[in-house]
């Protein structure tokens, strides 16, 4: 989308792709997204194969990706779309669309490179906020419904009796960075973490950046999954 304002330079809005095998779902999402002056749906696809084909020739910023689709599901499509050697015009950020009964698929999608997940029945304003959050470079883990989903999906992770996998990056974290990671895993925003730790938000952003770097995580979601997998955080703690 390009917005012109009395001869001023055009501003390119956020370009969105909808990937879902249900045409009515795509139509509803498109209506909500296209109602926003800074967002525009530029690609629609009914499965992963079609999505990958279209995204090779179309620049997209954010992809809303369903999980269960014919031919190629959202997991495989997400993995290919976010792979370093993907031949597309760009590497968009992916938000996985899901329901509570697909938790194990969500975890796999996050590991494959998705930047967040969103419940299909989330309010429109939550979906719009998720698109803008992901486009800004953050990950979608803050909304309360997503926090509940995050805690729910760890049932797919090893139980308390199984030895937790180790991650070399955890040993490199300072005490404060580990503290920040725990708060991230509890769904706290940078502003909330700053309040919890009585530090400036800019300081929190620095800590978050170092946590991501040391863990080799693409974004907050991947860091949070690592925290759960390694037993640093448990549901309800």
TrEMBL record:
Annotated InterPro entries: CheY-like_superfamily (IPR011006), NreC/VraR/RcsB-like_REC (IPR058245), Sig_transdc_resp-reg_C-effctor (IPR016032), Sig_transdc_resp-reg_receiver (IPR001789), Tscrpt_reg_LuxR_C (IPR000792), WalR-like (IPR039420)
UniProt keyword terms in alphabetical order: DNA-binding, Phosphoprotein, Transcription, Transcription regulation
Domain Response regulatory: 15-135
Domain HTH luxR-type: residue ranges: 166-231
Modified residues (4-aspartylphosphate): 66
An example molecular function term from Gene Ontology annotations: DNA binding
Record keyword Transit peptide present: no
Keyword Iron-sulfur: no
One Gene Ontology biological process: phosphorelay signal transduction system
One Pfam match: Response_reg
PANTHER family, sorted: TRANSCRIPTIONAL REGULATORY PROTEIN NARL-RELATED, TWO-COMPONENT RESPONSE REGULATOR
UniProt-recorded name of the protein: LuxR family transcriptional regulator
Native source species: Cellulomonas bogoriensis 69B4 = DSM 16987
